[in-house]
Amino acid sequence: MDVLYRKGRSTAADVQENLPDPPSYSSIRALLRILEDKGHIRHEKDGARYVFIPSVRRDRAKRSAIRHLLKTFFEGSPELVVAALLDVSSSRLTDEELDRLKKLIEDSRERDKR
């Protein structure tokens, strides 16, 4: 999906070329078929080739993936997600990053009061 979002439209071969350590071409085709069956992408014919295009906006797909991750691995708890992210962070967060996180939390509290 990342390749399709970055490029806007791609063939299976384009997707394969843009992946580090890519799986086989047939695996790419199978994955694209699954994504299309689930409604995440669609295709257009360009001669003998299929050109794949995202059918879900990236921000919507991101929210859906986060909801699924939250439910599947973190018992629906945003707190557990944040704790896990902080735990696996490869480096210490800067003061600026911590300030931005604090602001996001404060903004969320304000929205919840409304």
Topology overview:
Blueprint: H1 2-7, H2 12-17, H3 25-37, E1 41-46, E2 49-54, H4 58-73, H5 78-88, H6 95-113
Overview of this protein structure:
- With about 110 residues, the chain is mainly alpha-helical.
- The protein folds into two domains: about 1-55, Arc Repressor Mutant, subunit A; about 60-114.
- The chain is about 60% helix and about 10% strand.
- The chain is built from six helices and two strands; from the N terminus they run αααββααα.
- It has a two-stranded antiparallel ribbon.
- The longest helix is centred in the C-terminal third of the chain and has 19 residues, at about 95-114.
- The protein is elongated.
- The relative contact order is 0.09.
- The model has no long low-confidence stretch (mean pLDDT about 90).
Number of helical segments with 4 or more residues = 6
**Strand content of the residues, in percent?**
5-15%
Strand order of the largest sheet: 1-2
Please give the domain count.
2
Instruction: Give the helix proportion (percent range).
Output: 55-70%
- Uncertain parts: none
User: How many β-strand stretches?
Assistant: 2
Query: What string, H for helix and E for strand, traces the elements in order?
Result: HHHEEHHH
Which whole number gives the mean pLDDT? 92
Structural shape? elongated
Distance between the termini: 36 Å
Taking the sheet with the most strands, its summary is: 2 strands, antiparallel
Rounded to an integer in angstroms, the radius of gyration calculated over CA atoms is: 19 Å
Which structural class fits the helix and strand makeup? mainly alpha
